[in-house]
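Subject: Sanity check before I submit

Could someone independently write out the structure tokens for this chain? I want to compare against mine line by line before I put it in a report. The sequence has 258 residues.
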Amino acid sequence: MNKLIPAACMALLLVGCARAGAPAPSASDVTAETVENALSASGMKINGKLDAPDGYQGFVGQYRGRKLPVYVMPDGKHLIIGTMYDLSGHDLTTPAMRQVSAFTEAQWKTLEKSTWVAEGDADAKRVVYVFTDTECPYCHKFWKASQPWVNGGDVQVRNILVAVISPKSLPRAAGILTAADPAMAWTSNEANFGNKDAPVNADVSAAAERKIKANNDLMVRLGFYGTPGVVYKDADGTIHTVHGLPPDPERLKAIFEG
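---
Independent answer below. Compare away.
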């Protein structure tokens, strides 16, 4: 195995010293809680595991909105924050960070608390969140693709309405949110997508506008800059995101079946 060079290091911290006569510590003995406690003065939180080379243990740190790689050294007593390379110049950290879920459970909770319109069985075993715009053709294609799973009863799609595509986006979204039956209004909007004669709600209440703008802000804050933006959990509970229309049937299957 090549020797490893921790590069771009931001901190080197003493985690703890072994007691005389105690077994020598190793990286695998160190818990996420221990790492977070060691970094508490910096304000960093630990959000999960990160793939690491043999002998090391990796964690994903969260600091001021940024994700940072944290490695426990093989001696089990020191931490290094930064990118790791081998002596051949291969970046061992970036590929691992790309595989890390972009979302934490706390962020999933923000989706639960946002304003959304549900489609599908309330007791469905799988929930999928979608940032969607009433005027977005790709959102409409995603809606059409989702229907077999939604109608089958196993999936509930929670549509977080945003207004970013056209001047019609805000009044149409507001009309759906303020309808007597928002779910029916949403389905009607999609069923009539592209119909130029479909009515647009001229009166946008201040309350509805605030909710839609809050959804706009949430979308950007969570790293989505276009629609559709999809967030779902797999069978193991790992959170995944898809930016834009899923590229193939296999990805759609992963979203709706796990």
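---
OP: Matches mine. For the report I'm noting this point. The radius of gyration is 23 Å.
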